[in-house]
Write a structure and sequence with these properties.
about 170 residues; 2,3-Dihydroxybiphenyl 1,2-Dioxygenase, domain 1; five-stranded mixed sheet; four-stranded mixed sheet; 9 strands
């Protein structure tokens, strides 16, 4: 397959939360994300949108959905499922299973952001640590109050990985 000349942009990420109103407030207060739509009610009988059953299947009956936007225009789509009801897993860090296991945001003031996360009801899972040996690239793992794992990078994704030291860069 031919490589694309320009990478395709990431549009949005959808996450499930048990309380959509609290999540809208939390992501706005902690990260400064703006709500641009919702919450709105999703039900199979209300519309023919994909979320109304075409994708979520016959078990789906009712949910709330809201759309937030980040500083660089990436969307954060929040879902609170009402029927069937949102469940919080006992182990929210099942990284060995297929699917999204964390969200990552960039902030050069990792310490300040992790303090805000904790002050607003989230959790700090690790200490802030030097990620790329011999550089000022740092990261920290946290989670929102709803159990979604959040990673914080001090630098952009490209700045972090394009400048990785040559040794240990690629696996066989």
């Amino acid at each position: 397959m031919a490589e694309l000349a320009t990478p395709i942009a990431l549009n949005h990420i959808g996450i499930t939360v048990p309380d959509i109103h609290a999540a809208i407030d939390w992501y706005g207060k902690v990260f400064g994300f703006r709500r641009i739509m919702g919450p709105r009610r999703l039900e199979p009988k209300l519309s023919d949108t994909a979320e109304s059953g075409h994708i979520l299947g016959p078990r789906f009956r009712k949910a709330l959905q809201a759309h937030l936007v980040t500083a660089n225009g990436i969307g954060l789509e929040l879902f609170q499922f009402l029927e069937p009801e949102t469940e919080t897993p006992e182990d929210n860090l099942e990284y060995w299973k297929t699917g999204v296991w964390h969200l990552c945001f960039t902030d050069p003031d990792i310490e300040g952001l992790t303090d805000r996360i904790v002050a607003e009801g989230g959790k700090k899972r690790t200490e802030v640590w030097e990620f790329v040996p011999g550089t000022d690239r740092k990261l920290c793992y946290c989670e929102d109050p709803f159990g979604n794992v959040i990673e914080i990078f001090s630098h952009s994704y490209e700045q972090t990985f394009a400048n990785w030291p040559k040794e240990g860069r690629d696996a066989d």
